[in-house]
Amino acid sequence: MASRRSQVVLGLDPDPARVDGGAAGARDFCLRVIEQAAPHCVAAKPQMACFERFGADGWRAFEDVAQAASDAGLLVIADAKRGDVDATARHYAAAFLRPPIDAVTVNPMLGTDAVQPFLDAAAATGTGLFVLVRTSNPGAAELEDLLMADGRPWHEAVAERVRAWGAELPPRESGLSSVGAVVGATVPERVDRLRELMPEQPFLLPGVGAQGGDPALLGPAFGGSIAGALVSASRSVIYADDPASAARDLRDVVWAAWESVSP
Predict the structure, then answer these.
(1) What pTM, to 2 d.p., does this model score?
(2) The one catalytic residue among 60, 81, 163, 193
């Protein structure tokens, strides 16, 4: 039997309501979780809001956490969801697409000119993007599922743009694009169609655990490649009594989902 590669992303969301000690407490909490759970994960995804709320101390804590995750052999995805006019987006891209950060989440609401600085920075630094397409929160349906004049939901138009943006960058060794898509694990019924629209995009799938997403239903997200799906869990792992066991159990469920559809 093949060894079980992990496609689990460790979401690092240190909530002050549950983690004492301000920025230093958030940093130390995340460092402990990384030490425990990293062997069963492929990436870490620090939620920037949980660090930025502490100002300069929070940024220093984020830098320490990102470096620790990288040193543990994890990819680092800054969950920043940035999106602004091109002049401002250039600064956001410079802030996030540099070592030890490997990718950043991007909000595409403002269109191509606002995303282009992130594409340029990713091309220059060998990093990547995950663009919000169909998010995991309940309110996403209010706008992302709105039907356009041709009868398609709006998020499908975003998916088509993501595929086009991805074509601007060289593919990874896996053959997949450096421009991925955020697709909520809470809407598995959308995954088949979005995979059809974005065959080369890696999917970052948040919403497992506390939000109710079922990782066993995410097989179609892989698109025929083990690198095609990254399943993210935050609260259900980091606040577990044993984060290592929680991450390992999720890894096994995700692997089973891959095996159910693997060529």
Answers:
(1) 0.96
(2) 81
